[in-house]
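Entry 14. Structure prediction run on the chain below.
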Amino acid sequence: MVEINELKFNENGLIPVVVTDYYTKKVLTVAYMNEESLKISIKEGKTCFYSRSRKTLWRKGETSGNYQNIVSIKADCDKDALTVEVVKDGPACHLGTDSCFNDYVYLSDDYKEFTYHSLYELIKGRKTDKKEGSYTTYLFNEGIDKILKKVGEESTEVIVGAKNQDVKETTYEISDLLYHVFVLMVEMGISIDDVTDELARRHVIDHKVKQKKMQ
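Output returned:
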């Protein structure tokens, strides 16, 4: 474990902090801490930064309610920068977005980024900004009954593929099922974070049960 007095704060008494989402590993924001804000963060278990513009401490979420619950704090090899993993209670950016990092400066054509979050946002966009000829938009226009019917159909296809021991077919059908479940989630206002939090809650409960059985 690295002690606070081992960290190398700059000439202004600050150290840069990269905040990442514990679940998605996505970079949420970059901020600064001084020794006092770091101690507060550790004591309270929530991020507290130092505002260079206002020259004062600020607790993330103090006014917005979008607190960042700290899971871990790590120092780099030179001990002059920190990464903080958090479980967030809301958007990380003051603009209301999940992360402060959303605008590409460069994107290689050779490495196309895919995440469940990016797929979810794409589907969500088809609901808010309907695109003519889009199958996703068609599902939203048809409504919940049509979406549920497709979820049911794709679930059956997964079962058939698995029953036939066809890995390729089953993989294909699971992908179809996931897509339609995402459409259902958007339709019902359920986010990926909602599902992630529920799974994490179950993981914690399961871990506690296992620990109890081992005692």
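The chain has two domains: 4-88, 116-202.
Filed with the rest of this week's runs.
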